[in-house]
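Q: I'm building a small set of examples for a reading group on sequence design. Run inverse folding on the following structure and report the sequence directly after it, with nothing in between.
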């Protein structure tokens, strides 16, 4: 396997390309669950995803891969600034796949 650009270390230890859409989707879902308006969900998810992406890219320039728990903490901290209930939903959601 070649070098992974903007990589993420998954829970099981393998590396994967970072995908901003995954952060966006999970943040959007958390906002939707707490009944924020659709446009608000979009704006918040976009801002949080861009914030996390910026940090991931900064780490990649230093050849550092973030693990998914670090990405989740970054997103949750940013989301708390917008809506504490959505942040709670985001933090407590478990991926069962």
């Amino acid at each position: 396997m070649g070098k992974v650009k903007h990589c993420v270390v998954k829970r099981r230890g393998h590396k994967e390309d970072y995908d901003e859409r995954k952060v966006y989707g999970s943040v959007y879902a958390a906002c939707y669950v707490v009944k924020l308006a659709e446009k608000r969900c979009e704006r918040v998810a976009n801002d949080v995803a861009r914030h996390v992406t910026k940090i991931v890219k900064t780490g990649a320039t230093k050849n550092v891969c973030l693990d998914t728990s670090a990405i989740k903490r970054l997103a949750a901290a940013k989301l708390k600034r917008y809506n504490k209930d959505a942040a709670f939903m985001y933090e407590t959601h478990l991926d069962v796949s």
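The chain has four helices and three strands.
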